[in-house]
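User: Here's a chain of 628 residues. Predict its fold as tokens.
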Amino acid sequence: MSSHQANKASAGATAALIIGALGVVFGDIGTSPLYALKVSVEASGARGGNEIVQAVSGILSLITWALILVVTIKYVFIIMRADNRGEGGIFALTALVLQHLKKDSAYRWPVTIAGALGAALFFGDSMITPAISVLSAVEGLKVLSPDLDKYVVMISLALITGLFAVERFGTAVIGKVFGPVMLVWFLSLGLIGLAEVVQFPSVFAALNPLTGISFLMAHSGVAIAIFGSVVLAVTGGEALYADMGHFGRDPIQKAWLFLAFPCLLLNYFGQGALLIRDPSALDNPFFRLAPGWALIPMLFLAAMATIIASQAVISGAFSITTQAVQLGFIPRILVKHTSAEEIGQVYVSKVNIFLLVGVVILVLGFRSSENLASAYGVSVTGAMAIDTILAAYFMVFVKGWSKLLFLPLFGLLFALDCVFLGTNLFKFFDGGWLPVSVAGTLLLVMICWITGRERLLKARWANSIPLEEFLQTLDASEPHRVSGTAIFMVPHSHIAPVSLLHNLKHNQVLHERVILMNVETANMPFVPDEERLTIEHLRHNFHSVSVRHGYMEEPHIMRAVALLRAREFHFSLMSISFFVGKERVVSKPSSALWMAPFIYLHRTMQSATEYFKIPYDHAIEIGGHVEI
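Assistant: Prediction complete.
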């Protein structure tokens, strides 16, 4: 292939990634124009005439610079450089920081809690985004006829139910149309906005940041409400970092800088120009911006865009759940992979049901995007603040960026995050309590699981026999050996597994070959096959095998066995028996009350046999009691 052909092929691949990123990464922030400016102007209290002019100019300035500082500078140019082998998101960032901290570091626990809190806040966002996005799109029907208002909730619930119903099929098929639809959506945003601003170009004076600052100073009494609404324009900005692993940094940066960002600005300024010309359009400036002939197509396109945005957030919740399981933040849970080609496409039925119930309750409880806007923002701004803290530590103290230059910059960005978070907390009793409650509950569950799991591991160690000590007993008197290979799943390779001891005690035999297999989750998204296995040969035909997988990979023991068979042992798969410990955890009389939830979670979690994809006809589960 010539260099010209190679460059052409490379350009074509990049273009495909850019369009794909539009469909997955920018769905949430791309639908913000449906409600962000309207809610912000209403929050300012402007009623008409010169008040509308001042409010529109000031809020447009605030939205513009929020997009520049929070999305463009913080995420696109800075945080996206904190990638964990190409992957982004709160768990990738947490893993990056943890792997550079010593095991006895006092910072490990705060970093772990920060990562857990960020993930919990994301789940709160995952419920609100589908509800507010779909409601705001369907509310466009009122522009056609006010009589259609009574059908908004019903149609929204139908769309949301259909959205969650198709999640189990995965995004492999419908994902192919996401990018082109969002490309048309962004181009439409830009074009209808451009058609208005060319008639009123003076609206671009709002690009001056002093316009927004002056407006806030003149309206200090409602500044908190204004800031709490302006943040709606940047919700979804964190997805640029979270979804970086799907498309890469370069396509996402180009998609934002050359398409999404300019089109969003044109649409916001177009709505602003319309409101200055016709303040009565405040009832729905987005759909009033569209010409009459384009209203129905825009309604349809908006419905498609909000469904895509919602689907992307829901899929993100599935991915976060999978990563949380891999890192030990939550119990094992059944994860279904919906694509043979893309490992990141997963479906978690319990999470899908949880989100569906939450979204339906939100729609029925708030009934409009304007009411729901009060609940939106707390979870997003909280997650953004955590991103800033972890990224600042990693960039400055791990990667060695200049403290003199970047600590003040991160300080400014964190101060802005705190302003957005603080102003949204003032909406706590107007609906903001909901994402805070969801995040708080999930955070408590994760803390309970993490601490209970640590106590369980200590209990195992206290009652365990070191492997070397066990092998010494075999030196003195070796039991009868039977043909075949026994693979014991163990949490630690230096301890004799309880399942082995129970089997030896009751059956009084050992297999000809014994493999102690320990599965570890690495602080990286994917582990190459050549680094997956670590094998140590011991006495008496015992072998210790560590299997490593990334936190975004599905642990699949039979794949590891296939590698082991090809690399070391030429055994028949039919001669393998897997021994899996099945513990029953009970609490000591002196145990704290919070151990009860952990014990319940431990008893109801997915079994190790299911989680590791061990064939049932090769698995032998041996139980025991552990007191904690």
